[in-house]
Amino acid sequence: MPWQFVKYVRRPFQQLFFGMKHLLEESKLLYDKIQGQDPKRPDKFDNNLWVREKIYSKSCFLTGIAAIEGFANFILSDFAVRGKDSLVSLLDKSQKSQKIERWPLVEKIYFLPSLCNKRLTPPAFYFKRNSKAFMIFMELAEIRNNILHASPEPRLALIKLQKSGFHEEYDDFEENFWPYSRIFKDYSAFNHTAAKVAYDNIIWIRDSLIKFIDRLDKKYLLDENYTLISKRYSEEEFSKEELIDDFKKYITQS
Predict the structure, then answer these.
(1) Which uninterrupted H or E stretch holds 160?
(2) What is the C-alpha separation between 90 and 123, in angstroms, rounded?
(3) From CA 37, how far away is CA 33, in angstroms rounded?
């Protein structure tokens, strides 16, 4: 079999989307075990289960956000048909001064179809900012920032004191939840239910981009990205060691 030099660009978002799904499944297994504990015996609760479920749930969410941001950056690089100059009347001062890659995630996602679809003439958009689904995505971006850059923030709770020391706590006040995603603002309690909301929304964003951008399809989530940069070299004439040691000699294009 012949040898041939290639250049490749890995697409990390591919593994991240699979990782998000795996972490969600693991968090569900732990969540079900937690729900199976006797609520009348809080002294018997397995705290290790609770901690592990929260770790898997937050990891699922953060992996998913990393996946969709990487996906957006690769789409921009591979499929853009126009630059931000075509959107100048729609951009704020910060967006005008920054490269698109540096825009906040929500703005990048919102404008991607306009930047990458020849059939779409700005200002025209596929995503609707005031739709519930997109509002949830906006909340997820804010939640990601709040988790990664955590700062003290008090939450309201009502506690019923018990002699046993295992006090009942009520914190289901409206102000403790994000209005659209209904995710609890105390992120130490970010669990499988919240991760599932995030997972479903991130998949909706991903699949919407695939639908909205002409040349993009689901093969992009699986394919490797190789570019041939040399002619073929016979295995009989060239050893692997020879080609590696003097590779610049055999590469015909940069």
Answers:
(1) strand 158-160
(2) 8
(3) 7
Residue 193 structure tokens: 């239910």
Total structural domains within the chain = 1
Chain centre distance of CA 191: 17
Among the listed residues 75, 81, 28, the one whose alpha carbon sits nearest the alpha carbon of residue 56: 28
Please report whether residue 172 resides in a domain.
Answer: no
CA angle 130, 133, 137 (to 5 degrees): 95
User: Which DSSP state fits 215?
Assistant: T
- Whether the ω angle into residue 123 lies within 30 degrees of 0, i.e. cis, is yes
What integer pLDDT is reported at residue 41 of this predicted model?
A: 79
Residue 193 lies in a domain: yes
Question: Has this prediction a pTM greater than 0.85?
Answer: yes
Reported confidence tier of residue 183, pLDDT bands at 50, 70, 90:
very high
Domain that holds residue 146: 9-151+188-228
Quick check: is 233 in a domain? no
Query: Does 216 map to a domain?
Result: yes
Cβ count within 10 A of residue 220: 20
**What confidence tens digit (pLDDT) does each residue in 68-86 have?**
999 999 999 999 988 888 8
Distance between CA atoms of residues 5 and 3, nearest Å: 7
Three-class DSSP category at 31: helix
Q: Please choose, from the candidates 225, 228, 205, the residue with its C-alpha nearest in 3D space to the C-alpha of residue 141.
A: 205
